[in-house]
Amino acid sequence: MFRLKHLVCFFLSAISLIGHVHPSDDLHFQHRSYEDLTRWLKNVSAENPNLTSFYTIGQSVEKRELWVLRLTENAQAERAIGRPMFKWVANMHGDETVGRAMVILLGEYLIKMYGKDDRVTALLNTTEIHLMPSMNPDGFAASKEGMCNSLNDFRGRNNRNGVDLNRNFPDQFDQVRGDFLEYLTGGRQKETLLMMSWISSQPFVLSGNLHGGAVVASYPFDDTGGPDEEGIESPTPDNKLFVSLAKLYANNHGLMKNDIKCEEGDHFPGGITNGAHWYNVNGGMQDFNYLHSNCYEVTFELSCCKYPLSKELASEWIKNKEAMLAFMEATNWGVKGIIRSSSDSKGIDGAHITVQGNAHLISTTKRGEYWRLLLPGEYIIIASAPGHNPETKRVLVTRERPSVLDFSLESTTNFPEKSLKKEKMKPEVGLAVKPAPTKLDTPVLIHHNQKALFEEFLMLTKNYPTITRLYSIGKSVKGNDLYVLEISDNPGAHELGEPEVKMVANMHGNEVVGREILITLAHWLCSNYGVNDTASMIVNSTRLHLMPSMNPDGYESSSQYSQDSMEGRNNANNVDLNRNFPDQYQDVNKLSKAEPETAAVIEWTKSYPFVLSANLHGGSVVANYPFDGQAPGQVSGQPNYAPDDAVFQHLAHLYAGKNPAMTRGPDCKLREKEIFHNGTVNGASWYSVYGGMQDWNYVFQDCFELTFELSCNKYPLERDLPKYWSENKESLLAFIQEVHIGLNGFVFDKNGQAVLGSYIEVDGIDHVTRVTSNGEYWRLLVPGSYLITAYAPGYQSEPVVVKLEGKVNLNFTLEMDNLVKWSNETDFNVVENMSPMFSYLKNVGIEGILVNLERLFEGNAEYDKVGAGVDLIKIGHEAQLPSEKLQILLIGGLQPNEPLGREILIRFARHLLVGASKDDAKIKDLLSRANFIIVPGADPQFEIVQSACQPETRGFSTQSQQTGKIIRTLIADNDVDFVISIGSGGYYFEAPQNCSSNQRKFFKNLEKNFKMFHKVFSKTNEFCKKERYNNELTPDIIFSSYSVPMVSVHLGCCLYPPPNQVPFLWRHNLKGLLNLVSASLQGITGRVMDDEGTPLREAKVVVVGSSAKVSFSANEAIFRTILPTGVYKLTVTVPSYPEKSIAVTVSPGRLANINFSMGRPRKADLKTQNWLNSLVTNYPSIATLIRNEQFKDLRLSFTSLDNLMTPCTALIFRCTSEPCMSQEAAKGIVENIAQKFINIKQEGSLLQATSIHFLPWQKDTTIASDEDILQWVEIHRPLFVIYLNDKISPGINIPKVSYGGRSSNPDIFKNAVMLINSNTTTVPTVEPESFANAINSRIETMTFEFGVNGQFNSSLLQSLVAFQADFGVTVIIMDDVKDLILQTAKLEIRSHSLNLTVQPSRGLFWRPLPRGEYAFFASAPNYLTLVHDFKLLTEGHETVVLRLVADRTFFGISTMSLIFICGLVVLGTATVSVLRTAIKYKKAKGRQRQTNALLRHNGDIALSKYVDSESDESSSS
């Protein structure tokens, strides 16, 4: 890489030097040291005082100055009003030095050419240019000339502390935690802080940041806020302007526009790139300029080599000179002017300029100046300022010169009607406050009555007029004012983007601690403003409203003696104000009339954009969070959590955690039973409150309010008040600052106007945030990843994925939503699909819609019903829906509490049918390839589930288990090829995982196709996924059970999204759903025919080496299969035809169509067929000719038993020539077996317990093919297979097969080999390609291959075929009464050397066993277990019949269980009886001892002796 970069640099230098250095460019082409630079700056400033001055913005870590050279006409004077400022900043990375040299050379050039060159002269007369050659002088000093790449430890690139300065600025996607001022300054490098101050304090308009290591112009934004990925653009609202500025430099540069590739992977078409598209830079200076000042900055990478030799600087100057001049001239693009106040004609500091359709704001200077860079065109400009009416003007912008547009804004007074401040206010921006008193204003904590409270607040407004305002929101029942003190750096006016907080106390008149704490809080904030960072941050960034008393009448009627009484609690009408608000669980028509105090607070809360609120109470010590009321169906004491429970719990724990009394728990003597975990409690779990202010704020006004109980004593003595202030001070300050957590921003239309009626939604949280009339919003959230969407009627919604760790600013620009146009272009103008939705369709509604669709689109739709009321519709080109096409099953509502799929699939059905009726090409293509079976509501239990966004559990209900059976039935009955399920509970795509790598690629491609156009999926792989709590119909389960591929698409965090979102979700997902369906129709289809084109309906198609399901239409002999991309071998077999194979390539999204012509049929082996038929005629009681799909086989068995019910032996004989010796051998064996068993019909004989099958196999005839035989073996699973082959030499081929000790097959093998060895001496070596090995690879069995070419051992073959009759035990398990074989029975065989559990094949079981004693344990469902002892005395065959007795049930309890329960009851009764007898005896004996003692004490010795003896007798007895 190092050599490559040197070669590129050399090549570029050679090309650039084809030109020559102009005489005017006779400059100092050499890298200057820091000392040389300092001397040069001093010299040029001294020599050119009218044109230059130089200054420093501060020192680096190693105390080197960050020098700046200022160039402009009349440089020693103050900047001329209206003259824009430009800056070049270079050498941010100390080892990137070309930019440093270019800035110095530019300074030389401008000084030299001023007055000589018209262009340079005009530039300096109209623009103030600031040149900073080195932002990182320490890094430059540590770098080495000639080093093209940074050192491994980045020494030189980074500053002295090893920090990359271009990753050290505040970033728009930073997660702000805690103190905002600390965030801005904490952890920043010295050079960074100096640059931040310089950029923010100077009205720069345009800037260039010069770097090295590439050749490209990179424009903002540099960061996406998402994962560190390349290729994702992050455009600013001024993206077109930035692109033009970048192109301006690249096109005027010697080489940049040629897409220079310094490193592998570099690709910059036209020489420009969006920063984030190249790679993510978090904390870059370029973005900081745009977001935190009026300055537009572009980064220019000037050379492949970062620190080239000085001799190369001349060529670099030639390449960059024209580009640098042209870029500086762009400072005068656009519009400029002054915004003045009509009241005094002075410029307004901090006024805003907005371009309609662009969300970026420009602020004015202290003199009211502004510059707004714009491309040529006509614009609408809006000027606004606090305390003034906005003004709008239209302007035409050209490239020749800046347009001048001044504004004169009319001054207004912006105060609520009830404000107590009568004088006009002039809102001010900044820290222009009255100096704090030398002695901080600390009030004496006393109880304030209404008059004292008013005077206290009035005094604060007089002492701190620039940060306070006193007003009243209304009056109480008795006419007392409800005072509020506002504390803000701009009191009386709402500042755009600044959140508002309210704190209300004394709602219950006798709970007074909060009242006095708020008065003290007001004093503390005012007196500490400008002195204490926390106080200053709160006042500057938050508008705070303090209401010490909501119930002044109640306060006046209470006293210090009402410490825990009801005296003064209610208002003057004796109404509890905290039960007087509208409630989510109460009928609004049954609400009591709002009290004056309640009505005033409601109106007040509606008038201000309050984000956070505290309600201060007394009587306990705890932080109480919503909800306060129980939902219908909840029981007393059960918690009721709000959708934003995470935020509420965070706020509650924050407050309690900083309050020592709250943390350790209340010590309230009258409430000793109250226990709160960590000082917090959910209101409903404590006690229910309906009509409370806390819940009303959140539910009805989107204001997060918590209730803080501050003291056990509601009305404590004055001497205790300081303690309560001390306990709550830090909690209150921390709580106020939490208004800044989460998200905030603006929602504008493309014209820069607020979108009225818009709201913000967090997916997965069932609570919306309203946007103010100014377009502002604040959304409190705890750290995490969220999907945020801005909605507005008539506008397109914009979902954004945000990773939140603190505070994030997120703005939305919404475009008008032309639903008619979208629906007409994309959804065939199906009005029903985009109609507003207020509730989900019930099951009967779905039925009605599907029935109506069948009626309207009779030729393409067929309504049906399956299972317990599950409706479906089949969609295809014809009503009969032939199965020759792929069958796609789409399922919605698989989970009853995920109804989104129901609505999406109803709309999808409409879309397909209307599109087909309009002959839409894409829909016609889909329906030509597939039929669609759409089941919108798979689980009818939808109507009884709770409509919860995040229920406590997620998964199948009892009814849903039945739904699983319905889906499986649909898959089987409709021969389904692919399944798509639509759900919610996250944004994720689910596909089978237990599959081959090729199949996983296929599913990955489907996922890619779905996500391609999706606004959320395109940005994330998985989001807000809910965990499952039990088994579901997952893609893995369906794929493993049916070999049918299935994918599940989940379309929203909320399991049960609000119904009004469904039209938006349909719109967002239609393209993805169509893409998914189209991409899934990939694989192979075809037809199997003879030479004349006649369908061969008995054909069988296999994809070799794949488990893929191949569906076959017997009607037209059409096959179909869905396959991943790749090359496959297809094998086709048809009875009477030779087998055929072909290689087929499957391409993405394509169905390969293959037609098989099988040629001419093979000649039938009539000789074999006649022989088989004759055997059936001769032995009708035991011989049956069984027709398989491709051939017939002969079965010897008693015909009362089905062949699949019995263990069997298979004898396969193959003929390849005449005469066929293997057939002759088979004939002899059949005759022998038939003669032996024809008259033996007793229970348990060989042909009752087993069956013997004879399979003819002859190449090039209609008998059978290799695969036919192997498939028969797989179906019937014979215990023995004897394969007679007339090709190999006489002998026996015994395959080597491992049985893993799982059965007694090794015993069979052992005995069979003994039998073979006693009859023959020829045992050939195993042939790997033998057919015997092919059989053994399919199933676990014994296969012996006999060569009978010219001779065979007849007695040996007969012995092996009848092996089961001569060796082993047959067990039959039957019902004792009904005489039926129990097909579900289970058998355990135990002995000293064997412990075996088997599932007999439908009640019949054969097993070879050596002589010995055995115990058989037979069981079956609903039968009593039978234990049977058995002795096997000979090596011959034995039959055992086990008859089981039915286990009767009583009330659903089995007999054995009932006996066990009764035994327990009897045992328990006996135990109790014994215990009672023992206790009685013990008590009687105690009484006798007491009597004896009493008699002895009274002297009646004779009687005492009698009693003693009697007692002894009783004891002995």
What layout of secondary structure does this protein have?
Blueprint: H1 2-16, H2 34-47, E1 52-59, E2 65-71, E3 85-90, H3 98-113, H4 118-126, E4 128-132, H5 137-141, H6 180-185, H7 190-201, E5 204-211, E6 214-219, H8 239-252, E7 272-274, H9 275-278, H10 285-292, E8 296-303, H11 313-329, E9 335-341, E10 352-355, E11 361-363, E12 369-372, E13 377-384, E14 391-397, E15 403-404, E16 407-409, H12 450-463, E17 468-475, E18 481-487, E19 500-505, H13 513-528, H14 533-541, E20 543-547, H15 552-556, H16 596-607, E21 610-617, E22 620-625, H17 645-657, H18 660-664, E23 680-682, H19 683-686, H20 693-701, E24 704-711, H21 721-737, E25 742-749, E26 759-762, E27 768-770, E28 776-779, E29 784-791, E30 798-804, E31 807-809, E32 812-814, H22 819-826, H23 831-834, H24 843-856, E33 861-866, E34 870-875, E35 886-892, H25 900-917, H26 921-929, E36 930-935, H27 958-973, E37 978-983, E38 986-990, H28 997-1011, E39 1022-1023, H29 1035-1042, E40 1046-1052, H30 1062-1080, E41 1083-1089, E42 1100-1103, E43 1111-1113, E44 1118-1122, E45 1126-1133, E46 1140-1146, E47 1151-1157, H31 1166-1178, E48 1183-1187, E49 1192-1196, ...
Parallel strand pairs: 3-4, 3-5, 5-8, 6-7, 9-15, 9-16, 19-20, 19-21, 21-24, 22-23, 25-31, 25-32, 35-36, 35-37, 37-40, 41-47, 50-51, 50-52, 52-54, 55-61
Antiparallel strand pairs: 1-2, 2-4, 6-8, 9-12, 10-11, 10-13, 13-14, 17-18, 18-20, 22-24, 25-28, 26-27, 26-29, 29-30, 33-34, 34-36, 38-39, 38-40, 41-44, 42-45, 43-44, 45-46, 48-49, 49-51, 53-54, 55-58, 56-57, 56-59, 59-60, 62-63
